[in-house]
C-alpha cells in the first residue's frame, strides 16, 4: 500500500546540514499496524510528518497505491492528504474555543471540496464518531471541560471524519497516565481490526507497541526490525 524508497531528510542550519533520515526503505501493507520506537531526537516525528506529506523529503520517494506522491502538484497533494491520511498527535491540538463536535467536524469542511460532504452529513458523521469513541453526551463540551483521555478520543474521532486509509499517530498516549493510555491504544487496535485502517504509531511505550503487527526501531536515521 505504501512503499518508501531511500528516503532522506536533512535540515539546513546555520551550523551546517543536519542529516536526520539517512535512507529509509519500508513497505507498509494495507491493514497493518506498525509501531515505531527509538530514542528521542532520532527523527521519528520527522519521518511521520513526511509520511503524511506535511513535510517533503530531501531525496527519496514515497508511493501510495503506486502513486509517487511528492511528484503531485500542491493541490493534488492536499487533496490526496485529505482523502488518505489522518493524524493523531501527542498533544491533541484541539481548538479550545470550539466544542467537541465542532472539533471533530473541522476536517470535514476542509475536505468538503474533494469529498463533497454536505454540512448535515458532516454533523451526522461527527456525532456517530463521538458515540463510537465512547463519548456520548460530550458533544457540546469544550476541550478544557474534558479529561486528557476524552480529549484524545476527540482527536481520534477528528482524524477519522474523512475516512482515511491510514492514520499516523505521534506518541498518542505520551501525555496520558498508563490506564488512560492503554484505553486509547485499545481504541486504535479496535479501529484497525474493525475498520481495517492502517496505523503507523510512534510510541515510547513498549508494552503497547507489542500489540502491533510489527515493531520498527529508528536508529541512526534508519529503520530496523526490532
Ligand atoms: P523524534 O521525534 O524522534 O524525537 P524529531 O523528528 O522531532 O525526533 O527530530 C529529529 C532531529 O531533527 C532533532 O535533532 C531535531 O532537532 C531536528 N529537527 C526536527 N525538525 C527540525 C526543523 N524543522 N529544523 C531543524 N531541525 C529539525
Ligand atoms: Mg517526536
Write structural notes for this entry.
The protein has 226 residues and is an alpha/beta fold. 37% of the residues lie in helices and 27% in strands. It contains 8 helices and 10 strands. Strands 6-7-8-3-9-10 form a 6-stranded mixed sheet, with helices on both faces. It has a 4-stranded antiparallel sheet with strand order 2-1-4-5, with helices on one face. Helix 3 (100-110) crosses helix 5 (119-132), helix 3 (100-110) packs parallel to helix 6 and helix 6 (148-160) runs parallel beside helix 7 (178-195). The chain is globular, with a radius of gyration of 17 Å. The model has no long low-confidence stretch (mean pLDDT 92). The site of adenosine-5'-diphosphate (ADP) has 11 residues, from strand 2 and helix 1. Residues 44-45, 170 line the site of magnesium ion (MG).
Outline of this structure?
The protein is an alpha/beta fold and 226 residues long. Helices cover 37% and strands 27% of the residues.
- The percent of residues in helical segments reads 25-40%
Strand content: 25-35%
Query: How large is the radius of gyration?
Result: 17 Å
Query: Strand pairing plus helix content: what structural class?
Result: alpha/beta
Shape: globular
pLDDT < 50 runs, ≥5 residues: none
* Biggest sheet statistics: 6 strands, mixed
Ends distance? 22 Å
Helix count from the secondary structure assignment: 8
Number of strands: 10
The hetero molecules present are:
adenosine-5'-diphosphate, magnesium ion
| Physical arrangement of strands within the biggest beta sheet | 6-7-8-3-9-10
The residue-averaged pLDDT reads 92
List the helices and strands in order. Answer: EEEHEEHEHHHHEHEHEE
